[in-house]
Structure formats: C-alpha cells, structure tokens
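Exercise 7 asks you to align residues with tokens for two separate proteins.
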Amino acid sequence: MDDITKCPVMHGGATETGMSNMEWWPKALNLDILHQHDTKTDPMGGDFNYRDEVQKLDFDALKKDLHALMTGSQAWWPSDWGHYGGLMIRLSWHAAGTYRIADGRGGAGTGNQRFAPINSWPDNANLDKARRLLWPVKKKYGNQLSWADLITYAGTIAYESMGLKTFGFGFGREDIWHPEKDTYWGSEKEWLAPTDNPNSRYSGERDLENPLAAVMMGLIYVNPEGVDGNPDPLKTAHDVRVTFERMAMNDEETVALTAGGHTVGKCHGNGDATLLGPEPEAADVEEQGLGWNNHTQRGIGRDTVTSGIEGAWTTDPTKFDMGYFDMLLDHEWASKKSPAGAWQWEPVDIKEQDMPVDVEDPSIRRKPIMTDADMAMKMDPEYRKIMDKFRADPEAFKDAFARAWFKLTHRDMGPKARYIGPDVPTEDLIWQDPVPAGKRDYDVKAVKEKIANSGLAIGEMIATAWDSARTFRGSDKRGGANGARLRLAPQKDWEGNEPKRLRKVLDVLEPIASETGTSVADVIVLAGNVGVEQAARAAGVEVNVPFSPGRGDATDEMTDAESFEFMEPLHDGYRNWLMKDYVVSAEELMLDRTQLMGLTAPEMTVLVGGMRMLGTNHGGSQHGTFTDREGQLTNDFFVNLTDMNNTWKPAGKGLYEVRDRATDKVRWTASRVDLVFGSNAILRAYAEVYAQDDNHQKFVNDFIKAWSKVMDADRFDLD
C-alpha cells in the first residue's frame, strides 16, 4: 500500500504538511483579519452576555479568595518567600503591557495572553504557571468571571496584599476564544533578534517602526540586559522612553511604574537556561499546555529560570515600600553575569542586612540586582529628577504609582461607562476620554427638518458624520461620534477631515444644536442620517435610518489632544483617500481600518459601494463613482464594477481607467480600493450579491444597518 492509502487523513491545508492559500499566492489580499473571533469559535453561545453575568459576581468573596491564593504556595510551582504577588503582578503587567496607542491593539482587555503567539513569547516565560495557579478561582466563579478580568485583577489584588492602597478596579473585559493572529507584532522571523539585523523594526538612528512599542519580537517592553543585550543605561533610557510613550505613558508615569513594579518580586536566572523545554505552543501533549519545563534538573523555587537575570530588587520583596529607591540610589552598581549568563547589575558594596533573603531559606542572604532599565532610572537626567522627587515624597509616589497602574490595566477598556463593580473610581480621568451625558428627550423629527432645510448637500452631511464616527477603534474603544471631538483640536485640523469643508458644515449644524437644545454630536449624526434618507428616497426607496439620541459634547478640557494625535487617519478607503503612498497597499490599509471599526467584510463591501454613490469622496474626487446618478443610494457601483462591457486599465499612481469595451472610451476612473471588490474572489462574491437585479432593496437595507453600526459603535450607554 502507498502512504496515502495507509493514512486515514488526507493531508491538506489543516496540517503542517499542507500549503495555505496565502502560501500559494502571497500577494493575495488576506481577509482573515476581518474574520477574527467568528461566533463558531465562541463556546458560550449567542445568548450569553458577560456584562450581565459579571454583575452577579460576589466581588467580596472573589477578593478574599485571591488574597488567600497569594500566600497559599503550591508544591508544583512554589511561591517566592511564600507569596505569589510578584508572579501575579508580572502576569497582569505583561497582559496589559502589550497595549500600544498607535492602533489601540494589545492590552489585557480580551484575555489574549492565553493564546499564541503571546502565550509563548520569551518575555512571558512561566506566566503559564501563573494562569494555572488562577484556574481554581476561574473554575469556581465560572461564567461570572472572565479570564481577562481575572488576569488583570490578580495583579491589583497582589499589590493590595503587599500594602499598596490601590486606585480601584473595573470589571467588564470579555474573553476572546481564538488568537488575534493577525495583529502585527513585527516583521522579524526569530525571537529576540538583534535590532541591527536586516529584518529589524528600527531604521535611521534608532527610529522604532509604527505601530510597535516593544524593542524586539518576543519582548513586552525593552531588553532588560540592555540594548541588544549590551549594558548601556543611557541607550536603554532612550528605548524605555519611546516604548512607554507608545503606551501613552509620560516620564513621570514611566518612573512610577518602573519603581512600583520593581519594589516587589524578583527575577529568575539561577540555573542553566539550555535545560528548559520548549514554550507552550511547541511543547508535547504530555506537558498539557505548559512550557519552559526543566525535566533534567530541579527547576522551581530558587532554581527557577525565566528571564535569566537572577535576584530581587529590594530588601523586602513582598512589601510595597520605598525600598527600591533606597537600594538603587544609595549604592554603586557594576554589571555582572547571572548564573544563567544574563547581564545584570549588582551592588559594589552592600551590608548583609540590606540584602534580600533566599526565596526558600530565610537564613541565607542573596545579592540584590538591577536591570539596565533600572539603571536608566538612576542615570538618565530627566528620570533621575523624578526619582529624587518621589523619594522625597513617598505618598506622592504611592499615589502616582496607583494611578499609573490603574491606567496601565484599564487603558484599553475605553470610557468609564464600560467599567463594572464596586471599586470603580468616581474620578473622571482625561485618558478615559470623558463625555458628558447628552439630552435624550427632544423632538428628533424637528431637528431633522431643520437639517433637511439647511441647504447642506447630501455628500457634505454624510462625509461629516462619517469622519466623526470613523475614529472609533474596537481595539481600545476610543474615538467615535460621541463627544463631537471632530470640532476640537486636533481633529478639526486633520487633513483627512477636510478642515475647510468641515468648518462650513459645522457652521450650519452648531446653530441648529443650539436652537434645539441638543448636542452637536447628535446633530452631526442626524445630519448623516438625513443625507442617507434623502439619497435612498432619490433612488426610490423610503427608509428611516435608526437613531438613538443622547450623545454629549466634549470640551477641550476633557480632551487629551496629545494622545488623539496618534489617531489621525492617514487613509480612508471608504472615502477613497490616501494621504500619500505607503509600503502597504491601499486595500490592506482599508482592511486594517475596517477591523478596528469592528466591521465585517460584507459590511465593508456595502458601505464602500454606497459611499461611492453619495458624493463623499475626499476632496470631491470622482474615483470609483461608477454612476451618472451621484447622490442617489443605488447599487450602481456594483452593477458597473461587474459589467463585462467594461475593461480596466492602469493609469499610473495607483489609479485606473474604466473603459467601454466596444468604444475604448473612458467611462470612469478608479483606485485600487475600488477595483479590489472585483478582483478579490471573496469580495467579488459579495459585490455580485449587491449587483443582482433583485437586490437593490437588500443593498439599501444592508447599507443602513452597517451605517448605523458605525454611528453607534461608541454608544456604550446603550449596552
């Protein structure tokens, strides 16, 4: 018998022996990013609502159980000094620390740390053990407690159990059930590759690629041994500053987090790292999802190897105190190699009573250590000023750290309206993008009539509403139409928002809001809805676009303008606009924005086709307006895109001409974004649905449904 006959499974794309479509055709447009977290991966079913379930949680009992867990050491993975606090803080920190402000991706908000690649990053070594230690708690509270909330809460309770007065905590993070495998973590093909290699994420002097925050593949922040593993605190200070800025942290928050994070716990490198088994994703089935196991020698307790650096930072690593400042600033330090061969800093001279005790035997004293990032806090002039300030005012430090920790662990949750539980702080914080509650009980019909009689064109109204809402990012729940920040700096000046056109429209809509006692935010969205209704009516379809009043208007004082700068659109496929040419294709950029907005591939398709008909192209461009009925909500885009009486020819600079096949006369022009809906097999299948003679009504209905989804994406008050 041949091998195929012997084997009961036909080897295909589902096995490591098969080739995927993207491997066969690497230049094809990959739509997988829009298919993440399909309902088929969710075991909870469509009726499950975590936000309802978590409110039934016995919060007091959970807190007591976690406090007990911190000091209940398990023989299979014993705690250091009888306390799991350091391990649980690292678990929470490394879950939250993947957040980056450029695209809002990463963070602790989904429980993504359970899945590859993050569960197997070198920087997350042995955090699989922390999650297994938490399993009895998760098992007990079941559906009322997500892994995402538990992983984040464990670190907060760890700090509380070690003496810190925490700032608060909000529940409400809902688990995902499949890896976010399409998140871009870097182009490197190996873990911890030096940053001077050809595939590095750096260019120029040391310019880190956007949107990345970590310095290399497999790290959360910076290399603790130094730049490319070479001790140099001032160079490391540069990396620390860039990384934390990209996490939306300023210098003071960076110092507070570093000092507070290293006030407790230790690093582990007392052994031979080459004896560790593979990471979880590469481990054999008998490891049951655990990685980095040492089956050759004892690999737990004092003999644990994780980062390779070995030692604690402070004299008493289970208490939140000022010991980090005393240890770092009162001693001279020299670079040494750990038992595992990693670079670390050790004190030149230290009294025995100032050294921490061994994690297993309190009669033994061990030398403390510092990482290169710690030395940066001492040697960088700006960081040192903050260190000295905090040391002189311990209460200011504790408050700064508690706030920074809260920000770190909640940054990707979005507005405070999404927080659940008894420990939610009452204080509004500017990084939460606060928006005052809007008025709900007003005459919506009367407002719409004023808008309809205002003289604004359909395209102007729809484009303005779109620009207001398109900033929403499902990754960190920032942006959106609520707050009407479109009229504030920096958004009012963004090129993608066409400032001149925007000012013209706002000059009409703002008086209507004032006259009717409603918010500008509501009026902007209502204007877009009016435009859609008018366009549908012109195409022979009577519709009423759904609307939920209640948006509020943010002020400049409520707006962290500096952090909003990162959200400026550089492209918008829906309005057929690119600020400039990029290495990434226009259609790939559109997929990225679509995924951030929480839209599906069919929703993207119907919105692009509809927007092209409504005169919403940036700058009045006619690219993709495959119709002689602009301003009417017709399916002409799809009809003419799929019409084989046309040919399509390149016209340079990413543009194309749509020519009549018989006469060779140019009928329209198009961008790559337009034509991808005819060239990509999946998108063409959707386009053909909307091009059918019997689907004009379906097209209008689907457009309105997708439009309303975008307009209401940030309405967490409606949940």
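Second protein for Exercise 7:
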Amino acid sequence: MNHRQGVVVRGNSEWQKQCLEAISNAYTGNIFQLGGSNGRDDIRVVAANKGQQLLGQECKVLIVDVSQNFDANSFTSALGTVVGGGVIVVIGENLALDGYAYKWMARAFEQFLMVEQGVWLPLQPPAYEPIDVDCFAQQKLIIDKIHKVLSGHRKRPLVITADRGRGKSSALGIASAELISHKMANKVALSILVTAPTIQSVQPIFEHAKRLLTDAEVSKTSLTWQGAKIQFIAPDELLKNKPHCDLLLVDEAAAIPLPLLQQMVEHYHRMVFSTTIYGYEGCGRGFSIKFKKWLGDNRPGHQFCHMSQPIRWAENDPMEHWQYQTFLLNNDLANSAYSKQAELKLTIVEKQQLFQSPELLRECFALLVNAHYQTTPNDLILLLSDASVHLFAAFSEGVCVGCIVAIEEGQLDESLIEGVKLGKRRPKGHMTPVSILNQYGLVAAAQQESLRVMRIAVHPDWQNVGIGSDLLAQLESLTDYDYYSTSFGATSDLVRFWQANGYVNARLGSQRDQASGCHSFLMVKGKQSWIDEVASLQQYSLCYLAKDAFRNIEVDLLKRLIVAEHQSVAIPKALNNYVQGGSSFDAVAPFIEKILLADGNALERASDLVIRKVVQQWSWTECAEAFSLTGRKQVEQQLRNDLSLLR
C-alpha cells in the first residue's frame, strides 16, 4: 500500500517516547521531526516553523510536536516530504493554538488514528485498493515538452501547474540535466537560469540534475558540468541585469507578480514556468487564469500543462485529502453570474460562525486563495485565532462574491509608544501605527484606533464593475475607526485602485519584497489632520529617494506615486533653447523636474527616458543601455525630442 497515515499519540511524556521508539523502529528510511526535541541522532529535528527546510527531501516517518508551537505553513510543507507507506505522528500534551483555531485543528486531528495511553488500540481504517498506473507517465511527457521549448520555435513558453508531490521540480531538474548532456555531445555548453521567489524552493531542481550529472560541481546557487551551467538568480536581479541564457526556468511562478512575469516573457524567448496550484504555497487558480489570458494575447504559441498524477504516494491518498480539507487548499470557486440588479450587503462573519459552518469558511477562503497568491494556511489559523482579525463578506444567492480580511491596530499605551520611538519596541500586529511612528514621529497614529485591510477579494465574474470600491465604502459605514489603512506590494494598478477610493500615500518600503518582487506600500484614509502631513512628507521622501533607493522603480509606478500639484508652471526660455539644441542639460534639469512635479499632465505625458534621466537621475550610460541608444549624444537628442512634446 502506497498511502500515508496520520496517528495522534496521547499520554505522558515517557509513554509517548516509548511509542515513538516503537514506531521509528518499525520503519526503514529517513525520520524527520518538526518541533520539540529528540535525543536520537538518526532523527533530523527542525524547529516548528522551519518545515520548509525539509522541502525536496523524503522521509518514512514525520514526528510533529505541537505542544510548544504550531505553524500551519511549516506543517503543510513538512507533510509533503512523507512518501507513500509513511506515517505522520502527532505528539504533544497540548495543541499550541488559541481560540477557534485550536478547536479547528483539534477537530481535524480527531480524524487521525488515536493511540491513547491506557486505551485499547483503535481499528485500522479499511485499506484502499491500489490502482495499477505508471506514476511517472505524466512527468515523462512534461520532460519531453521542456526539451521542445529549447529545440522548437522561439516565443512558445511552457507553463506547468501541479499539486504538491507530483514531481514538478524533479521534472525541471531531470530535463535540465538531459538537455545539458545532449548539447554537450555536440560540444555546446548550455546555460540555464532558474529564478524563483526563494532559493530554497529550487534546491530539488539542482538535486535531481546532480543525480544524472554525477560528477557535476554543485553549490547552493549553481550546478556546473563540463562548462555547462544551471544558475539560480533572484527575480529582481534577473530583470535588472537581464543576463543571457539558453533557457529560463521560472519556478513557483504564482508567487511572482504578473507584471514581472510579463517582463520576463518579453525579454526571454525560451521559457518554462512552473507553479504549485494547491499545497503549502496556498496559491489558487487566479494565477493560471490571469497569466493564461495574457499569454493568449501575447504568446499564442504557449502551452499549459497540469500534473495531477502523484509520484510520492498513490492516488486517493487520505493524508492529502485531509490536508486539503483542513487547510482549505483545494476549494474551487462556485460559479456566480454577475447581476447588475444585485444589492450586495457586506456583513461581518464571526469566528464562531466560521467554526460551526465549515462550508461558509471554505467558500470565503476559496475566494481569498483564488485572488491572492500569498494567502497561506497560516492566514486560516490567524483568521480563526486572532480576536483583532475580522472577516467581512458579501453574498449573492448563497455564493461569496466579495470579502475583506482586516485587522484592528493602534491604541498603544504611552510606554509602548516611547519604546517604538526609540527603536526598542516593535509590537506585533500594529504595522501601520508603528510604521508611521517610526517614519514620521507622529504619535497620534499610534494612539488612535485603526483598521488595516489585509486582503480584499472579489469573485472573478464580478470584477471590474466597481464591486471592490463598493465593499470598501460599506466597510467604512459598517465600522467606526479613527482611520483606515492598507499595505501591499506596489504596482501601478493597485495604487490607482486605492487612490480612487480615497487612500493617500503614506510610506514606500525601500527594499523589494522577496516573494512579490515589489516594494511594500502603505496607504491611509481618514479625516485626521496628521494624514495630510503624512502624505506631504511621503511626497518629499519619494522625490528625494527617487534618485537613490527608488532609482530603479518602474516608471509607470513612480508616475502613479508622485502626487503632482496640477498647477501650470512657466516654462523658462532656457528650456526652449535646450530643446532646439542650445543651453545644457545641467542648466535646465532642475526646471524640467519642477514642471513634472507640479503639472500632472506633463508628468503623465513624460517619456520613460525623461523620468529616468530627470527625476531618477540616471547616468547617460545607464540611459543609453536601457533604451538601446549608442551613447550620450544619441540619448540627449532623444531627450530633446521627448521634451519638445511637453511644451
């Protein structure tokens, strides 16, 4: 039998230890433990929140100690390492969760075999009849398709989606090794780049390639074999430097913003995208739908393939079913035809309702998973356990068509505020007030009560008709806070949406988020006097940092972030002279910037070259490289042409 089994061991610590000893001795193969400690040298133990460190490895027994800490993301990651015929053993006298999250997981673990001290052993569940199938058949087809990406026509990207445990990463590694070996037979050293949100997620690719290229040199970020190379590169570095490669592999693509994927497709012409649709990543089908539509318009020769056949375990695996049901990872959205006459009413959904009506929670969470690639099992636990986190939802004929997850923040006491001001304290769960207090020193933001929108999702069939804006308006009518806020990975479209709903710019993070590749952006809304001050200070900060920390930010996003005063500015004669070939750039650059920052129309019409050179102060060499011009003379001529259109 190639299915996995879950067991809960309940009893005092000495009795649990004896049970674990018996279970461990009954299995051959690796044994991992998540959380707690273990005195055996042959058992690899990782912290309760570090299950991702086990990805790409396999074990027969996974011991999970839930007594001190429980991290759902880590737990679901570790489950994927257990192979068919293996067992997951849950130990711990208490489940380290609060509120309805405790009740939710306790109810879920009751579906495991219960082995209790002083109680007769339970009956084994009925065995599943194995199905005689070639579990590698789909993987072989995928490997052939990856080969054709390199050997076939250009501009025909392949997109692979798969559930966890289907051999997606191993397919990428095997195909890469085979391609390198075949090309080397013709004395061609292949260069393959691999990009992903985190370097940990691509380790299985290197490991499976190494199995075929046994004498290859492998480091954490690369594999080299007879001059050929597989090299990891972060998404932001890839798009910044655009290094040459023969083939680009983009793993866990759903966790990379669509605009960045589009830039990759436009530059690289032989690409394979892969992503986990369900599983620990928590991403839904939103990626597939949106990306497939864009590829259909821009790369009509693309291919989409889904891997459904498990490799690590047999089909109908009870643990996989339990995992998806417990953490709501495989709930497809119900169909809901948009109705213009429908009156959507946003209501708060209490935690007790969510626990007592799992179908209601599944309905709302399916929408969140579909809309947000970063929605994870930990979000489910947070929603059920944290009293400050609230779920608001709107339904049409019983189907959730819109929902908002928001968290209460603020009302910090004076001692805590002083600690934050001095950089000694950073209270968890108060992102907006702490950020504003740190950045601008405005105490009122920390003293007042606020609500931060963490997630907002609208059913795909109800999008682009104003539903999101309507839900936000209803949220403000339904609640009573001093101010509202939101934070997200900044893209021009998202910033435009929130600005249209009255939110003002508060803070742009200087570093790009590792997962999204975007700068985090904080926006606030309210009638408090300090909010106007924040917006003004953010404008000064942005314009200054556009020349340094934000000098590589996307031009369309920068235009959206700069809040021009929309007032006419007299154009100096020197600028007219410069456009016609006279004067000098250094003499007119300050005036050009003043015009752009004051006149919203001029800012919107300005070319990318004008923004890069004037506002972000790129060098002549950088501009020449970015815009495929030969040197300063050609750049300056193009700049003069572009500026002539602004007069």
